[in-house]
Structure formats: C-alpha cells, structure tokens
Amino acid sequence: MADPNDPEYAARIAAGLRELNIPDSYALERQLALQAEAVELRVARVLKDGRQLKLSPATAAAWIALSEAAARDGVTLLLISGFRSVAHQRQIVERKLAEGKSLAEILRVNAAPGYSEHHTGRAVDIGTPGCPPLSEEFEKTPAFAWLMQRAGGFGFRLSYPRDNPHGVIYEPWHWLYRISNQHTA
C-alpha cells in the first residue's frame, strides 16, 4: 500500500496536482487527507463488459456481508465502483478537462488524484436496480433507506452527505468501510 506518510508518495502526488493546475491549498481547503493506494485487492464484482471491480480484502468481506443482509431484507445492492488507482483518477480529471469541463466543476464531483477514498480499496459506490447509477435519485430508494439504518453495523459510513466540508456534491451512493469495525448486523 502506498503510504500517505511517505514523503516520496506525498511529493509525487503534489507534483501531479501541480501538473493539473490544482492549487497546493486544495487538501487544506477541502479538509481532505492524502489517501493510501491499496495494493492487495480482491475481485468483488465482474461487470457485464468483463471489468473487475476490486476492493481491499476486508472491504470485500464486509461488502458481501452487507449485500447479503440487504438481500435477506428484500433489498438489492449493486456495487457500481470500487478501487480506483491514483493514475486512473488522474485520467478521469484529464478526460473531463479535455471535454471542456472546468477544474472547479470536476473537483465538485471527483476528488483530486491522491485524495480519493477509492484509492484505498475501501470506498464503494452503490446502486440498486431501477435507479440511475451515481445519481442523487438513489437517496429516494429503499436501498438507501436500508443503508442509512444498517450500513454502520457493517462498518460503512456515508462519505459525502449534504453540505459536507469537502466541497464535494452530495453523494448518497458513496460509502467508506472503516477497517477496525466488526460486523454486528
């Protein structure tokens, strides 16, 4: 795992941000921590196009427990996104810039490379059948209501609630697994 306390890692991330014209003050202003980049990953879902969604081993186990418990309660949870490398996060930002989006607009929906919880392999984007993926409409689904009541017992918390201090839009679909939690549900 790339350690955010490693000066070389931090310097590499800082250089990458400067290349994207992201100010040095970004992390402080957004109250975001430099994230470790996971190395050990497990396949948690294979999409129809063959892409593999991966999570850290502990997160994958917690995700399985969470989704199975939801299914027992008649709720379908779909893993939409998991691990994303720093390089992939940079590609997302570069692609959106090439599409003509402003950096400010991009950073409201995507954390800067090095600062995404997806780098850790502990972040999951969750969907449910009948709801457009990665949309605020997810908040109105039984899946979201179930998560709000039960996800904490499996170690997951909502990362970007309304009016969060990070300057990121409300993301009812984005949940982070806390490593030290034991399944209680």
Could you explain how this protein is built, in words?
With 185 residues, this protein is an alpha+beta fold. The chain has a single domain, classed as Muramoyl-pentapeptide Carboxypeptidase, domain 2, CATH 3.30.1380. It is 34% helix and 16% strand. The strands form two sheets. A four-stranded antiparallel beta sheet has the order 3-4-6-5. The chain has a two-stranded antiparallel sheet with strand order 1-2. β1 and β2 form a beta hairpin. The protein is globular. Mean pLDDT is 95; it is low at 181-185.
Helix content: 25-40%
Task: Kindly identify the CATH topology.
Answer: Muramoyl-pentapeptide Carboxypeptidase, domain 2
Q: Strand count, sense and closure of the main sheet?
A: 4 strands, antiparallel
Total count of domains: 1
Under CATH at level 1, the class stands as: Alpha Beta
Structural class: alpha+beta
Helical segment count: 6
What low-confidence regions span 5 or more consecutive residues with pLDDT below 50? Answer: 181-185
Output mean pLDDT: 95
Question: What is the total tally of β strands?
Answer: 6
CATH-scheme architecture: 2-Layer Sandwich
* Radius of gyration computed on alpha carbons: 16 Å
What fraction strand? 15-25%
N-end to C-end Cα span: 29 Å
How would you describe the oligomerization state of the chains in this entry? single chain
Along the chain, the helix and strand elements come as: HHEEHEHHEHEE
| 3D shape | globular
Major β-sheet strand ordering: 3-4-6-5
